[in-house]
Amino acid sequence: MAEVASKCHLSKPTAYRILVSLVSGQLLERSAKNRYSLAWDTLRRKRFRLGYASQSEEFSFSRLVSESIRTSAYDAGLDLLILSNQYSQAKAIRNAEVFVREHVDLVIEFQTNEGSASTISAILTNASIPTIAIEIPHPGAIFFGANNHRAGLIAGRALAQACIEHWDGSFQELLLLDLPMAGSIPRSRLTGTVDGVRELIPNSAAQKVHFINGNGRFESSLDAVRKFLRRNASQKILMAGVNDPSCLGALTAFKESGRSHCCFAVSHNGSLEARRELRREGSRLVGSVGFFPEQYGEAVISLALDKLQGRQPPSASFVKHKLLTKQTVNSFYPNDSELAFGDEDSLLYSFR
Fold first, then answer.
1. How many CB atoms lie within 10 A of CB 293?
2. Is the C or the N end of the chain the one with fewer CB within 10 Å?
3. How far apart are CA 82 and CA 79, in angstroms?
4. Are 241 and 267 in contact (CB under 8 A)?
5. Residue 1 CA to chain centroid, in angstroms?
6. Contact indicator for 264, 169 with CB cutoff of 8 Å
7. 3-class SS letters over 227-294
């Protein structure tokens, strides 16, 4: 310790505190009183290998999550085995089995079907592989993702405010584009939306609330809302989607039917497609609750390293949500215009 203090021009108490911190971080070993040496076992430790099962490559949101995780894993010096769950329950289970055969040290799981969560967790737990679950909770896994009810409240308040400003707080229907296979936790985005609307419009409790399965996809939601509009003549409809593709598909159905003026909508994720829609003149999209997928990697890889290095990360960590609107979208994403996103055919392809 005296040698370190002298060569680093530190007082002995300061040198002692730094050395204790390095011992705590397993970079040094305390061999005797005031004597320290390099922790060679730690320095020679194997390079960690992580498995990452992405949700799908069809959504811009999940592509950004994947890119963020790849970048952060590379920066942290980690090996990353990437597989795609392809929005499929069966594929997600098979991928978990691949991770076991490959003897990865930890799995980052991003899959949408609540029904397969227990099976995936059992496969990985039996192999003693710790798991971080993104967006959909898995038994025994560390959770990272949306604060769903909180995000829904933000969306509902924005929707109610638009209704108050344009329709004097009066509406006839509340249409919610659901994703039943994801389970009750993501659905709380929509129940939170209902709560947010009723918070600002207390007399709306008697209004009709419709949950429609949009499957989290543009085309499925487009078809579902087409059918809804054929049998519904209401002129004041508030609408929310569990994610951006659902909401944008529903808005397209209103536009096709010549009834865009009959709705206001909010969505979740804050993806590039939603940001483009917010900037479109005359759009009925009030806002999209931002999840900021480009920031997921830093947080998730930090949780993974904590777990692998023997520290105990929190059992759940949540995204801090912000509402993107016509007025605020440019402040959150000032560089969108520089992205080469392609034409309208590319936009639709991204939903498929």
1. 23
2. C
3. 10
4. yes
5. 47
6. no
7. HHHHCCCCCCEEEEECCHHHHHHHHHHHHHCCCHHHEEEEEEECCHHHHHHHHCCCCCEEEEEECCHH
β-pairing, 79-84 vs 35-38, is: unpaired
∠ CA 292-326-288, rounded to 5°: 40
Place of tokens 């049998």: 231
User: At 211, which helix (H) or strand (E)?
Assistant: strand 208-213
Q: What percent of the chain clears pLDDT 70, i.e. is strictly above it?
A: 94
Identify any residues that bridge with 133 across adjacent strands, giving them in sequence order: 109, 143
Domains located in the chain, CATH noted: 2-43 (no CATH), 49-146+294-318 (3.40.50.2300), 148-290+322-334 (3.40.50.2300)
**83 has which bridge partners?**
53
Tokens representing 182? 């994801």
Q: Rounded to whole angstroms, how far apart are CA atoms 231 and 247?
A: 19
**Angle formed at CA 24 by CA 44 and CA 129, multiple of 5 degrees:** 60
CB 224 within 8 A of CB 212: yes
What distances in angstroms separate CA 117 from CA 82, 112, 244, one per listed residue?
19, 9, 24
pLDDT at 28: 87
Q: Over the stretch 271-320, which tens digit does the pLDDT of each residue have? A: 999 999 999 999 999 999 999 999 999 999 999 999 999 999 999 999 99
By the 10 Å C-beta count (0-12 exposed, 13-18 middle, 19+ buried), 182 is classed as buried
